[in-house]
Amino acid sequence: MPTVSKKSKHRSNPHKTFRLTRRRDAVQPLQLPSYLQLTHEVFQTIWKQWRTFGLLVLIVSGVYIALVGMQSQSDYADIASVVKDSGGELLSGVLGTLGQASILLITVASARLSGEMSELQQVFSVFMLLMTWLVTVWLLRQFIAGKKVKLRDGLYNSMAPFVSTVLILLLIAVQLVPVSLAIIAYNAALATGLLAGGVATMLFWLAAALLCILSVYWLTSSLLALVIVTLPGMYPYSAIKTAGTIVLGRRIKLLLRWLWLGFINAVALVLVMMPVILLTMWLTSVWSWVAIVPIVPVILVLYVASAVVWSAAYVYILYRKVVDNAAA
To answer: Hey, CA dihedral for 131, 134, 137, 142, is it positive or negative?
Structure first.
């Protein structure tokens, strides 16, 4: 099993402050499986232990609902009623139903993501996210190493790097500041009419693009640091430094894999939630009492838990591919 020690076996970072780095020193070869092959391998790895990861999703979802809660069914019913009433005249037939379901999906997902939560609920949400991530990575490391472990072992033994992982997440939050500034500037420019056109608009989009590129540049290595920091005896600074060395000359390839991860999660959200919403709409039209059953909110929580597990597996397996390639 590939590991990364505190003193990484990779070559040291050739970049020096205020010095031009030669291309021969900055480029490192990286052979990765195709996007579909990597996706298939992640699904195959999880499927081999579907009982363990399925139970993890159920436990995480149940604890999340108990501690944090989920979207109120009455709120969902109100949203569905508003969408149906407002789109009833414009959207009709099969395409109209799909359009209503799409609007409802976007509204429900965005409402849940931007919904107001108390400080205690936010703390529990972050804790559940970290726990799911750490347990998934720990279990995958054991399974790939050929060890037979149970979910109980992962829940008890995977939380050792909790503080280190929190520190990496705080760094990621700082790295997202440029994107936040770009969003704030966009809202301000939209309100003041700065985006009406002309040189000012061009300069604004150029500055916003540079801010976003800066965040993306940082995040490319920080995502790998989330896996590296779970290694025994690894400290946050060492994980960040090692991740920066690993992505040297490979940043674009890894960035494309991160974008693919986001694309897969978005497609999975549509493929999972759209049939559920359509089924709920049909059942509600047949039996009115179905409107009080929180089908969509529960399935949405289950999907989010599954997406976190799958994303953790994707990042971990991609990390192994990069390390194996460097060791070859």
So the answer is: negative
